[in-house]
């Protein structure tokens, strides 16, 4: 497997193929939510789990043990507020991580740790543009004009709170000799003047809703009123920023004066930002054998944990650490569970041998009409993507995505828009959807495959 740019899911595809290679030994269930662990009331041994699938509660008994790898709680609003101190964080990863693994571990007496720690990514110190609740943020890593010129970032009081040019490390910025994620605010806004607006417009804008989300006003006080921050605070901040830009020294946060220009006359602009969360680190504590511990620091028999659910990073984060925890702790947990003596309960044969990952790769039942051809690509985030292309008279008449495993939000936008663009242009040489480059590439490759092999 060779990487094809960032975020190409190369590791996921390798692991996915390993499962396909062992499909006779590994079951995969989609849309199967863990409800509870099954625990012996006397010995406290974990004997299985209760699963909700297609509206039916199924008790699945384990032969050797249960390994929890259910991810974090970044989409659980109550947990985010209680543990991370934020009213809202916008997810960059899965929109389905809601802390289920934490809750079912607590039910059997698990001890929690590192619940306050999380990672971010994105613009400035880990931000994205304001995103509706329940949707995933669009990850943008570079945007010319947002941290160089007559522009700065404000908190709820209308004042700056960090050096806008400082590179973030998974959302952490260097503050008082420590790498920290800045305290979240309700109304983080980027503020800039007309000259900066013109500069931004003269450069590529990587966010297609940027202009429609701008707030514009003739004066700073009017702008403050429109965005709901202190007019006095914002006016004082603009005056101080102008003075520091003219003096050639940012006494507040040490921003390079070469990146600072005094604000000119209006109009002035603001755009709301959101604090991102890549994933949380908290969850049930595990020991060196990946055994999940109870509140007395004793292993809960036959229960293990891996991945970011109860990650080992307490306050900071090491780049690549989450993938490492999945691989290393997954291996440790699997080996430890496999070494256990078998439990006396056995699962019903009724539910053995179900592998929906394999079922999702079947294309034999896709019907083809006149001038219709199938094409496929493995370049998508979720694996194989299949299209049905109607092609005649050297023209692409229709493109249908008939099989995919892409993300439900931004990936679906690509599934809707890229086929339309290909038909309109009669070519696969069309622009990708921002934030869904892998899905866009997969569709284009699949269409090309269908035409070349028709």
Describe what you observe in this structure.
- This is Urocanate reductase.
- By secondary structure, the protein is an alpha+beta fold.
- The chain has 3 domains: 29-113 and 278-354, 3-Layer(bba) Sandwich (FAD/NAD(P)-binding domain), CATH 3.50.50; 127-277, Flavocytochrome C3, Chain A, domain 1 (Alpha-Beta Complex); 358-452, Sufe protein. Chain: A (Alpha-Beta Complex).
- It is built from 11 helices and 21 strands.
- Strand 17 (291-293) and strand 18 (299-305) form a beta hairpin.
- Helix 6 crosses helix 7 (231-247).
Distance between the termini: 27 Å
Number of domains: 3
Shape assignment? flat
How much of the polypeptide forms β-strand, as a percent range? 15-25%
Q: Architecture of the largest domain, CATH level 2?
A: 3-Layer(bba) Sandwich
For the secondary structure, the number of strands is: 21
**What is the CATH fold-level name of the largest domain?**
FAD/NAD(P)-binding domain
Helical amount: 25-40%
CATH superfamily of the largest domain: FAD/NAD(P)-binding domain
Keywords: FAD, Flavoprotein, Oxidoreductase
Catalytic activity: dihydrourocanate + A = urocanate + AH2
Organism: Lactobacillus pasteurii DSM 23907 = CRBIP 24.76
Pfam family, one: FAD_binding_2
Brief account:
With 454 residues, this protein is α+β, with helices and mostly antiparallel strands. The protein has three domains: 162 residues, FAD/NAD(P)-binding domain (3-Layer(bba) Sandwich), CATH 3.50.50; 151 residues, Flavocytochrome C3, Chain A, domain 1; 95 residues, Alpha-Beta Complex (Sufe protein. Chain: A).
């Amino acid at each position: 497997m060779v990487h094809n740019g960032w975020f190409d899911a190369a590791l996921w595809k390798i692991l996915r193929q390993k499962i396909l290679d062992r499909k006779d030994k590994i079951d995969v269930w989609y849309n199967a939510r863990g409800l509870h662990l099954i625990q012996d009331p006397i010995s406290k041994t974990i004997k299985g789990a209760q699963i909700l699938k297609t509206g039916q509660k199924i008790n699945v008994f384990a032969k050797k043990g249960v390994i929890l790898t259910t991810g974090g709680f970044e989409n659980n609003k109550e947990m985010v507020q209680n543990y991370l101190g934020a009213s809202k964080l916008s997810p960059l990863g899965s929109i389905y991580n809601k802390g289920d693994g934490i809750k079912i571990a607590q039910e059997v007496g698990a001890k929690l740790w590192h619940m306050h720690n999380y990672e971010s990514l994105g613009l400035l110190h880990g931000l994205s543009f304001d995103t509706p609740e329940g949707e995933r943020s669009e990850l943008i890593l570079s945007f010319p004009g947002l941290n160089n010129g007559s522009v700065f970032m404000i908190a709820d009081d209308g004042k700056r709170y960090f050096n806008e040019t400082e590179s973030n490390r998974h959302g952490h910025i260097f503050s008082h000799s420590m790498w920290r994620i800045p305290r979240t605010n309700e109304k983080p806004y980027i503020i800039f003047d007309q000259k900066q607006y013109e500069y931004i417009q003269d450069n590529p804008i990587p966010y297609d809703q940027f202009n429609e989300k701008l707030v514009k006003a003739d004066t700073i006080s009017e702008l403050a009123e429109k965005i709901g921050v202190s007019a006095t605070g914002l006016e004082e901040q603009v005056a101080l920023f102008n003075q520091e830009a003219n003096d050639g020294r940012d006494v507040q946060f040490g921003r390079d004066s070469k990146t600072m220009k005094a604000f000119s006359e209006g109009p002035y602009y603001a755009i709301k930002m959101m604090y991102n969360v890549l994933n949380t680190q908290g969850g049930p504590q595990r020991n060196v054998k990946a055994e999940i511990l109870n509140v007395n620091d004793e292993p809960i028999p036959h229960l293990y944990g891996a991945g970011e659910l109860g990650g080992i990073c307490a306050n900071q984060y090491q780049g690549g650490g989450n993938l490492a925890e999945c691989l290393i702790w997954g291996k440790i947990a699997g080996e430890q569970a496999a070494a256990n003596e078998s439990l006396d309960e056995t699962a019903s044969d009724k539910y053995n041998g179900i592998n929906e990952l394999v079922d999702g790769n079947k294309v034999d039942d896709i019907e083809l009409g006149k001038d219709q051809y199938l094409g496929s690509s493995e370049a998508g985030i979720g694996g194989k993507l299949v299209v049905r292309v109607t092609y005649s008279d050297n023209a692409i008449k229709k493109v249908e995505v008939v099989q995919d495993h892409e993300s439900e939000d931004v990936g679906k936008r690509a599934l809707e828009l890229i086929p339309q663009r290909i038909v309109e242009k009669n070519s696969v040489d069309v622009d990708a959807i921002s934030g869904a480059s892998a899905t866009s590439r997969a569709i284009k490759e699949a269409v090309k495959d269908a035409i070349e092999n028709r």
